[in-house]
Task: inverse folding
């Protein structure tokens, strides 16, 4: 196979690959040097405008068998120049290094020295490249050009004088969304990014331009001055709001989520996420989160501890089943497959004839594909999915493995019929409901069907159901636990826990395991709450949280998947689940000062 040599490292390449793409791959494998790049981005067209990636290229003369300077020795843009067999490339030769220093000096001429107050500080390519490829001193003594700050749209601010005119943002709105809100106006040092008059940056993927901007010019209004990025810890996760299965990264600190960013997965979300997914996590820290178990005592809702709540649940279900009535369990499509498995096991332990059903699956609008006019399976298409729950398919898959007919997984409409909706006839005496939706979810029909039944609710946000539930247990959102979601394309993708459960809350899967432990006679732990120190990275301040001790086995999604894989119908959990990448902790190249 054809090969090239970059900075002394020989490697093969695919036809059509550019030198920079090959170099980036080598660097990802830990075998090559970084070539600086501003205007190049894997998901966009190549314009070769910033000139920082220029390299020295030599090609073999097939007649003489010697190497000759390519194109008469001109430096070539590595992002645009395709690789050809036998090429020898240098990004660290004196000529290439002199260019890097000149470009850095040029870009910094009008750039303000406001790193201490810039949100991009710590993840800025101007900072990184100044350190790695720049001069270290400025020779510019004249006045810098001042440019305005602009409000571009719902989520994005532009600090124009930080812009280096890479045009990534402009190309994104042209090539990925097809909405073309952004443009370059003016010339020379008066050039600015802007929107067209009266047309704000307002598309469903608008905030991706913030990630694309290599400097601090495009900023997120939702993250503005919220946190210094070096304090953030990153956890690989999956969209927990819609059925897209988009790969995301949760940035958090001291048990609090600060932002969500996309992770590249070319089979799912490419390099992007929708604004809905990026900002849809806010309910995780809502003041309306349930934090304490409650029970109805003589018709009045009172707070209680988990032990009392669990014994009430078991007594209520047993009282119903002893009268020949059945238990019906609604498993929300917001929960993970592993939780559905342990909840279904709990249901069948409490009542071997328990009805199992998937919860209501919300839809808003229709599926949309970007760029406008593309087909959903086009190589560069990004899909906004109308189904607003991450795991309806996974829940159905798990419940169907627990038996067919009316004993297997029902759809929500059939669940309501089983509760007696429309007929008033029902053999259900106890109901276990799980919610975990980001907003009110229980229909009038569901609420009216609960009358006369013993109701247990595991949910995250306070709502009307809490008023009628005999026992309410606080659940945990997807960022507070690990698990697996099956997306709209049938892909099983696992995600990690980012932050500890909010105080008093437990993952629904943990509630199920604890209830199973109570049924098995496991004594309650001496202390329900313990203090833990949240894991921190070098140089970070560790944070303490209070968390709940499990009564039964600790909810461990990976261990539950191993057990599930042995169940007929669930073998896919043994060999088809895509695991989150294990990110190596980034090492600092500076000495850490202990505080
Ligand atoms: S605003 Fe950012 S992404 Fe857009 S051209 Fe300027 S530097 Fe590039
Ligand atoms: S990255 Fe090659 S010219 Fe900008």
Result:
């Amino acid at each position: 196979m054809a090969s090239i040599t970059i900075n002394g490292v020989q490697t093969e390449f695919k036809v059509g690959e550019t030198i920079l793409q090959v170099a980036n791959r080598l660097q990802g494998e830990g075998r090559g040097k970084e070539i600086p790049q501003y205007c190049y981005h894997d998901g966009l067209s190549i314009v070769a405008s910033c000139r920082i990636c220029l390299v020295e290229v030599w090609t073999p003369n097939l007649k003489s068998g010697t190497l000759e300077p390519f194109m008469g020795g001109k430096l070539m843009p590595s992002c645009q120049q395709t690789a050809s067999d036998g090429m020898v490339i240098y990004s660290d030769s004196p000529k290439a290094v002199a260019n890097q220093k000149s470009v850095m000096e040029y870009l910094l001429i009008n750039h303000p020295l406001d790193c201490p107050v810039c949100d991009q500080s710590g993840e800025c390519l101007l900072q990184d490249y100044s350190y790695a490829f720049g001069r270290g001193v400025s020779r510019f003594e004249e006045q810098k050009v001042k440019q305005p700050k602009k409000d571009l749209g719902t989520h994005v601010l532009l600090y124009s004088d930080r812009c280096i005119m890479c045009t990534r943002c402009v190309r994104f709105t042209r090539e990925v969304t097809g909405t073309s809100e952004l443009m370059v106006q003016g010339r020379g040092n008066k050039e600015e990014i802007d929107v067209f008059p009266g047309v704000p940056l307002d598309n469903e993927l608008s905030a991706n331009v913030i990630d694309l901007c290599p400097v601090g010019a495009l900023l997120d209004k939702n993250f503005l001055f919220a946190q210094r990025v070096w304090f953030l810890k990153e956890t690989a996760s999956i969209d927990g709001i819609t059925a897209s299965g988009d790969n995301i990264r949760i940035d958090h600190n001291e048990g609090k989520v600060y932002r969500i960013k996309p992770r590249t997965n070319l089979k799912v979300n490419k390099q992007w996420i929708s604004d809905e997914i990026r900002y849809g996590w806010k309910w995780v820290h809502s003041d309306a989160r349930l934090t304490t178990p409650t029970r109805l005592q003589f018709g009045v809702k009172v707070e209680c501890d988990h032990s009392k709540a669990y014994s009430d649940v078991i007594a209520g279900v047993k009282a119903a089943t002893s009268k020949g009535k059945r238990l019906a369990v609604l498993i929300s499509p917001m929960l993970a497959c592993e939780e559905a498995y342990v909840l279904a096991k709990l249901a069948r332990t409490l009542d071997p004839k328990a009805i199992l059903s998937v919860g209501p699956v919300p839809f808003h609008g229709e599926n949309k594909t970007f760029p406008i006019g593309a087909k959903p399976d086009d190589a560069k298409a990004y899909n906004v999915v109308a189904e607003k729950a991450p795991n309806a398919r996974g829940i159905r898959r798990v419940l169907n493995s627990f038996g067919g007919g009316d004993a297997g997984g029902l759809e929500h409409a059939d669940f309501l019929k089983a509760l007696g909706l429309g007929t008033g006839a029902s053999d259900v005496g106890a109901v276990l409901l799980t919610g975990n939706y980001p907003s009110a979810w229980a229909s009038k029909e569901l609420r009216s069907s609960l009358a006369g039944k013993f109701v247990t609710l595991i949910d995250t946000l306070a709502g009307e159901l809490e008023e009628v539930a005999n026992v309410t247990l606080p659940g945990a959102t997807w960022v507070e636990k690990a698990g697996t979601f099956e997306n709209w394309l049938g892909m099983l993708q696992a995600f990690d826990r980012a932050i500890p459960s909010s105080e008093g809350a437990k993952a629904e899967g943990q509630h199920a395991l604890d209830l199973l432990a109570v049924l098995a006679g496991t004594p309650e732990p001496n202390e329900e709450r313990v203090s833990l120190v949240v894991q921190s990275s070098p140089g970070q301040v560790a944070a303490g949280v209070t968390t709940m001790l499990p009564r039964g086995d600790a909810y461990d999604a990976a261990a539950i998947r191993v057990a599930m894989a042995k169940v007929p119908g669930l073998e896919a959990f043994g060999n088809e689940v895509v695991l989150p990448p294990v990110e190596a902790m980034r090492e600092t190249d500076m000495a850490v000062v202990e505080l």
User: Anything to note?
Assistant: Residues 37-40, 48-53, 77, 79 surround FE2/S2 (inorganic) cluster (ligand 2) (CB under 6 Å). The mean pLDDT is 92. Residues 8 and 112 are 37 Å apart (CA to CA). The longest strand covers residues 54-60.
